[in-house]
Design brief:
single chain, about 210 residues, alpha/beta, Rossmann fold, five-stranded parallel beta sheet, three-stranded antiparallel beta sheet, 8 helices
Length: about 210
């Protein structure tokens, strides 16, 4: 990877650890971090026009339309030219094409690969901090990072996982194949502790 590349997107199936690894890498490099899913949930909570448009799709455990996702990400990326990391974008070929067009810098794609059965197991135990967004498990009573309250995500159900996993296979995998022809894509095995996976990512990027 060229030494001057400080822009990344973190992709992977649901519960693959994108949020955890994305935050760790962004903190280590001192670059801005955007979780498109968390940002959409915040827009919904605030009742913004964008959030109201997104609500209908998230209630059905569906990805939001490409045009809405691109609108959310484009303005953010253009405000962080010093470096950025996108968690969960692009999810489709149209989103990938849009990112390749509007991103002002070269970027690297980090793809987390995790077996399907492991993903299902993680969904059952996953908890997210309502204060800082840190992803933990039901082994913790409070967020180990900020002490905030942990709660299960509304889309972490068996039905929700199946819909999102199928969408990942049909939409995001083709987008990854497109990105491989246009930029650097690094695939990382997402099994192991968060520290082990973070170390594997760091090894690939140096």
């Amino acid at each position: 990877m060229p030494a001057d590349v400080r822009c990344f997107t973190m992709l992977g199936p649901p519960a693959s650890g994108k949020g955890t690894q994305g935050r760790l890498l962004a903190e280590r490099l001192g670059i801005a971090y955007l979780s498109t899913g968390a940002r959409l949930r915040r827009e919904i909570e605030e009742g913004s026009p964008l959030g109201q448009r997104a609500q209908v799709f998230l209630d059905r455990n569906q990805y939001v339309p490409d045009s809405l996702a691109v609108e959310l990400v484009k303005s953010w990326v253009l405000r962080h030219e010093e470096g950025w990391l996108l968690d969960g974008f692009p999810r489709s070929i149209p989103q990938a094409e849009a990112l390749l067009e509007f991103a002002p810098q070269a970027f690297t794609v980090i793809h987390l690969s995790v077996p399907e059965e492991e993903l299902r197991s993680r969904v059952v135990t996953r908890r997210e901090c309502i204060s800082c967004g840190f992803v933990s498990t039901n082994d913790h009573k409070q967020c180990p990072k900020c002490g905030g309250e942990l709660e299960a995500r509304a889309d972490d159900s068996a039905e929700g996982f199946e819909k999102r996993f199928q969408a990942y296979q049909s939409l995001t995998i083709p987008a990854l194949e497109l990105l491989k022809t246009r930029t650097t894509v690094v695939t990382i095995e997402g099994l192991g502790s968060r520290e082990e996976v973070a170390g594997a990512i760091q090894d690939q990027l140096t």
